[in-house]
Design brief:
The complex is a heterodimer of chains A (231) and B (434). In chain A, 71% of the residues lie in helices and 6% in strands. Chain A is mainly alpha-helical and 231 residues long. Classes of the chains: A mainly alpha (231), B alpha/beta (434).
């Protein structure tokens, strides 16, 4: 499948997950999105799937404490000054599950976009917004690049006999990682300018025509997006 | 008429306390191959950037004099306008890749130059063929080795069919054959080439003319250290105690083919061994296994004492705010000062590590592992970005400290290998010599 219909399908599924009110519908969308993510190489997908799981899990755990709705208490907690009695209701749990699944669906759609799509083709198709498309394509490379740099940093420190253990030690790597990424960004910008980026009248590599599958996928994406309004 | 002329060029970077280039004048004829040599921080990269217009347009700073390339004054023509007439391959191949697949990456510059769409793929493919990399066309750039990436960057530059090709240390990650092939391709293309290099052997063999920079100025003569062959140390069998022994070690990265198969190696205290071999043969992997950073899938590793490992491109992996803190991180301040002194870096002790030039960063990284005073010291390409004079000093330092440890140096730099090693271990075409 070409990159553009694939991106449209992913966007439509994420859109549907955000609009759907039924927890079962959103759960089904999450499962559908999980399938392509599992096709990515395990070393690449691990970070994305872990991030999605941790983020969605956090939403599920925190949501009931941020809400005060429902009439079917599931758990009564202590009375906290200012906040009053802490309670968790079934309705709050249900909503927490829905929002966590929505979060997971959007996260998995983004992960599939980063892990599986041909960003060069997407960029080639973006005739009228090439700068924005290029920024998105470069931004999607940030996570794997940072991951590689972090591995290199830890290895370099281990090579000097400095073990990086614990959250605090890992947090200390954020600053050098950011500095390295800014340096890399400047080098890239320089190289792009030297290769003529920003000159007017640019052309693009001809893209292959869409296949039947591509057209069906785009139609499917449209159907999902429109259908989501009634989910 | 000269293709490029640099007239009385002086330049300082914003906030710099000294000039990077001082009254430099130079002419480059069409088709000429110029080797630009010079010590670390002497202004080679700055001069290349001036020829491509990136200095001053991209970097800012104080610019005096004139640079004209292909009849265009770089003060009034932006680098993007000069692209096509000039093409540049920068020092760090990883930092100049824009797209995710090789063919698209090579086509990127052609698209920017408004090449007719029907011609883009043909020219990109032809540039890849010219450097023998057509088999890489559909590969993701993230999966390429450093050497392959370097070739893709060269293809991206050649695809533009420039009149002036600027190469900034293009062979720093390449073995001798690959570097020779790269220079052959650049020369065969017929355009004028200016190549800045720290390993002078190849440029000296290829160049029509040598330009030597020192402290931002063109020097009259090439210092002898750049042309003399080093005197190899007297080879001797070390009688020190064994520090590390690898027995029939095998290793494969997850999901990849075997990188090491039944390799054996033994290093004794007092010896310096140079590990050489072509790109992608597993030198770094073997070095990491020896240093204990990788647990082999098969075989046995016996290590008797502490180990320190300096990775390739260590300038990327600096974590603290000052040079002194960086070295002291694993060893304490007293040893750190001593190591900085040995590497002639005390003047930079309070500077931010990322403010140093690439050669200075490399020396800083070497100081970080020397300060640890390990029983086994493993250095992976420690001379990248380091000029011949500094290489000699580094070789002398490693030789002087050799009695206290076993040292394994992974290098593509034959001259350095010859000047530092008691013995050479060839991986790939030859078996590992124990």
């Amino acid at each position: 499948m070409s990159a553009v219909p694939a991106a449209a399908l992913l966007a439509a599924l994420a859109f549907a997950a955000l609009l759907a009110d039924s927890i079962w519908t959103v759960a089904a969308i999450v499962l559908v999105l999980l399938v392509p993510c599992l096709r990515a190489p395990s070393a690449h997908r691990r970070l994305y799937l872990a991030s999605v799981a941790i983020s969605a899990g956090s939403v599920f755990l925190l949501w009931p404490w941020l809400q005060n709705t429902g009439s079917h208490p599931f758990w009564h907690g202590p009375i906290v000054p200012v906040l009053g009695e802490l309670t968790v209701t079934r309705e709050e749990l249900w909503l927490a599950g829905l929002y966590a699944l929505r979060f997971a669906a959007v996260g998995l759609a983004s992960a599939a976009y980063v892990l599986l799509l041909d960003h060069d083709r997407l960029l080639g198709a973006a005739s009228w917004a090439r700068r924005s498309a290029l920024s998105v394509a470069l931004a999607t490379r940030l996570v794997p690049t940072l991951e590689r740099d972090a591995v290199g940093l830890v290895e370099a420190l281990r090579g000097r006999g400095v073990e990086v253990e614990g959250a605090r030690a890992r947090a200390r790597l954020l600053s050098p990682l950011l500095a390295g990424s800014l340096e890399r960004g400047l080098n890239l910008a320089e190289a792009m300018e030297a290769r003529g980026f920003g000159r007017p009248g640019r052309t693009r590599v001809p893209t292959p025509p869409w296949t039947v599958v591509d057209r069906l996928a785009l139609a499917g994406a449209l159907l999902i997006a429109v259908g989501a309004l009634w989910l | 008429m000269a293709l490029a002329s640099v007239v009385d060029l002086s330049f300082s970077y914003p906030g710099a306390d000294r000039q990077a280039l001082v009254s430099v004048s130079l002419e480059i004829e069409p088709g000429e191959f110029v080797a630009l040599l010079g010590t670390s921080g002497s202004g080679k990269s700055t001069l290349l950037r001036a020829l491509s217009g990136l200095v001053p347009h991209f970097h800012g700073g104080r610019f005096a004099g004139r640079v004209v390339v292909g009849g265009r004054d770089t003060r009034t023509s932006r680098p993007a306008d000069l692209a096509g007439t000039v093409a540049t391959v920068f020092q760090e191949p990883e930092d100049q890749v824009v797209l995710t697949r090789v063919l698209a990456e090579v086509a990127f510059g052609l698209e920017n130059l408004a090449t007719a769409p029907a011609e883009i793929v043909a020219r990109a493919t032809s540039a890849l063929c010219a450097i023998g990399a057509e088999h890489l066309a559909e590969r993701p750039v993230a999966e390429l080795s450093g050497g392959e990436l370097q070739r893709v960057c060269l293809a991206s530059a050649l695809a533009l069919e420039p009149e002036l090709l600027l190469l900034d240390e293009p062979s720093s990650q390449l073995d001798r054959d690959a570097a020779e092939a790269l220079f052959d391709h650049a020369r065969a293309h017929g355009c004028a080439v200016v190549v800045a290099e720290q390993r002078p052997e190849l440029p000296l063999a290829f160049a029509d003319r040598i330009v030597f920079l020192r402290d931002g100025q063109i020097a009259d003569e090439l210092p002898p250290a750049w042309t003399e062959q080093p005197t190899p140390p007297v080879a001797r069998a070390s009688e020190g105690d064994e520090v590390v022994r690898l027995e029939r070690v095998s290793y494969a990265y997850p999901g990849g083919p075997p990188v090491l198969v039944d390799e054996s190696l033994s290093l004794r205290r007092g010896e310096v061994a140079a590990l050489v071999g072509p790109n992608g043969v597993g030198k770094t992997t073997l070095a990491k296994v020896a240093a204990g950073l990788i647990v082999p899938g098969g075989g046995r590793v016996l290590r008797f004492g502490s180990a320190a490992y300096l990775p390739q491109d260590p300038g990327r992996y600096l974590v603290t705010e000052t040079v002194l803190a960086e070295v002291a991180l694993a060893s304490g301040e007293e040893r750190a000062w001593h190591a900085l002194e040995q590497l002639d870096l005390t003047a930079f002790a309070m500077r931010h590590p990322r403010d140093l030039s690439s050669g200075e960063r490399e020396r800083l990284a070497i100081a970080t592992v020397l300060a640890v005073d390990p029983d086994l010291l493993v250095l992976d390409e420690p001379t990248r970005g380091v000029d011949p004079e500094r290489k000699r000093e580094l070789a002398a330092l490693l030789r002087a400290q050799a009695p206290s440890r076993a040292t394994l140096v992974v290098t593509h730099d034959r001259v350095f290998a010859m000047s530092v090693g008691d013995r050479t271990i060839a991986l790939g075409s030859e078996a590992v010599l124990v």
